[in-house]
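Usage example:
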Amino acid sequence: MNTEAAETSEDQGKIVRTTSAFDCGGRCPLRLKVVNGEIVTIEGDDAPEPDQLRACLRCRALRKYVHHPERLLYPLRRVGEKGKGEFERISWDEALDTIVEKLTHVKETYGNESIFMALSGGYLGALHGAGGLVKLMSLFGGYSTHYGNVSSEGAVWAVLTQYGSVMVGHSREDLMNSKLIILWGWDPARMISGTNTMYHLIKAKENGAKVICIDPRFNDSGSLLADQWIPIRPGTDAAMMVAMANVMIKENLQDQPFLDKYTVGFDRFKDYVMGDEDGVEKTPAWAAEISGVPEQVIIDLAHEYAAADPGTLMDCQGPARSATGEQYVRCAMTLCAMTGNIGKAGGGAGGGLMGIPVGHMFRSSGIPPVKNPAEAGGKSVRGTLDLNLRLQKRMHTNKMFDAILKGKAGGYPADIKLAWFVANNYLNQLGNTNKNAEALKSLDFMIISELFMTPTARYADIILPVTSIAEKNDLTRPWPSGPYYTAINKAIEPLGECKSDWEIACALAEKLGVEDFNPYTESEWLKMFVELNPETGPQIKDNDKFRKEGIHRVDLPEPVIAFKKEIEDPENNPFSTPSGKIEIFSQRLADSNNPLTPPIPKYMSAKEDHTDPLTKTYPLQLLTPHPRNRVHSEMYKVDWLKETHPHTAWINPKDAAARGIKNNDEVYVFNGRGKLIIPAFVTEKIVNGVVAIFEGAWYDPDENGVCRGGCVNVLTLDEHSGGGASVLKTALVQVELAREGE
Amino acid sequence: MTQLGFYFNQTRCIGCHTCAVACKDWHDHQEATLNWMQINTIEKGVFPHLFLAFIAVPCYHCEDPSCMAVCPADAISKRAADGIVIVDPDKCLGREGCEKTPCLTACRSKSPQFGPAPDAKMQKCDFCLDRLEEGKQPICVEACPMFALEIYSMENLQQKYGEQKEAEGFRYSKKIRQAAVFTPKPEVFS
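Running the assembly step on the lines above writes:
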């Protein structure tokens, strides 16, 4: 398949059309020039405008990632202490034989549930990801695993509660129809929510839309687009939204016919907002006290959004990655309903996910799964909003290290003895990294499939070297929205002895004696994935052309608008909720009777927010936004990217002055869980009382336990919200000048 | 003579450095210190009323280049056909060979640069001559995710975008006459 995707010429090398499959919201067409087995230059999409999809700096540096001198090229066995990173090269045979021996030992001694598979999105291809390996582990008798998407769980839970669907987005051309765009905690310039999203936003602004940015930071998108920046205290967005609802209700600005026709439970929400439920009216003054946003600003925004015809409130997954994060998303969706902007061109349903049913990653094909015997029996969890039900068989993702440490005695479903990490750097990327390191030390045996010696990999007993995106053929899709499908084309032969996760599964299947595990060739699998997929089957008629071009674009006759048919013809198109309507009140939640997930959206206070008495010791709130120059912790080692945006802690001049901190001073940021050292970026671009450190820098503890790498998760909590969000944006810290060497 | 110029739409730039990374990739700059394309940040105002802008700084291929005027070895020249300012590595005396490396201080954009090697020759943005010769736009233009850049004759650029010669973080000099056209970001505070 390699050759059919390439235009080869003897002297000049070849051009391979492909894309990336990082855990990034974009999928950008790339043209890799390959000479003598090496990528030498990268060009972007050459489709004519307006179809051209442009990559960001990350994929422009792709070759420095693929050909990085620190790539792991051979299977390794740990020879030093866990965490020290001392390994020796072994053969694949030896590595796989050891794995078979350990898997068998754990299975026979403790049962399959003691085998833990830690999976994530470091590689998001259809064939060569972890899907084959988990299938094999099911065939081996089963495994324990985790529940809850680190990035988006709060938002996913909220949209399933309120709409019963994750397809809450509009295709981005529709932004041109908006008169008002509210970026509420959403920074697509940084996290790339779909290739070209920032371009669509600037076009909408140039078209006359007013843009308002609500964020504790004057973020990258807001600083380009926003006519107004409304700085807000982290974790208080729901309070401000509830107060906007209060203004609308008091002045009768809500779209009552819309609410009557399409929603259930608005009256219950109204009772809460007006204080009939608990005696506290949620006035702008009430919210101003909580959020730090002036009363009049809240009133004005309520007026403006209610009057916008149409307006879109773009919330996001980020602020939902917090202690009560799903409430922010539910409140946002409730405002969308109150203003009648759902199902309407130029409007928006909120929900933070932007999903459209054309090219959505969730609808990609993959290796057909088999049931995990270790999860057999018990109540079905399908479609449930009750997190406790889901956690009967799985550990919450942000609790996996606690589960490793405590096992069944700690209330978890299994005692974990052996763990296999695939396509993730969870030690670094989940809350409470110092504790996570202790958990990894406690494992009987640990395997990791990796491309680099990540902080997580340093604790492994066996490391299996994995091919990069350039070394295999596959299919991949953008997170939320196409409208297009992309193919990954092999540009170079696997470096060293690297194998894909799928190839590792196949090799292990052979060792385990599993017959017919891989009945097809790579190209047969990929062709089947295209042909049998309900979206691509009818769309992509010429698979060879698709593979050669690396992309199939879908012409939309008109923009996709979430819930258009539910609004236009509700009789025949009920929402996928139990009531068939937008559930501002959820009976399912009322039935689950969990105080952390009330049946109507509410502002709720939480541990380690600005009201916690712990603020006496740790007075600053911590934010952990997406980095721009890496994909979470992937690409961290690429110097071309590192130098573009130095890793710093953002701090307001007032907070800095109170601590004698000047711009670029080295500071300690710390709390009871950890301490890191980092240069301060003293800036007006962040609200007073808040520190922001971008996630994904690699954990590097010194002999005193101070993280020299600036891994922000040494400071975050290993907890989850009521709906299952990983609490990575609710934490209190202190900052002080680092006086090292004095 | 045609003078090629650089168009920068400042109202679109998000300071992402994609142009700079693409430039390093295309020209294969391994050294962290070499940046033919530089991005400067302009931050103004006091919380919460802020103004943020970026300026992309390639070589502006001045009509009367100050680097060319000061070079003791006549290594810098301006192409007659398109006004692109180029350096002849055979004539350049090199980082340590040139007594004062006056090109470094003469250029207000810091476009001339030397690699770390003692005998490194001066180098700078050449508007991707190799690509222009193939009829392609320079790599920074092709890469910009915000479609904010263009390289074209000054005449055409001015026709298309007007004659605005300045932007936040960039001052025009009548003496050297940088070949650039801007859509500046209006100084409006959030």
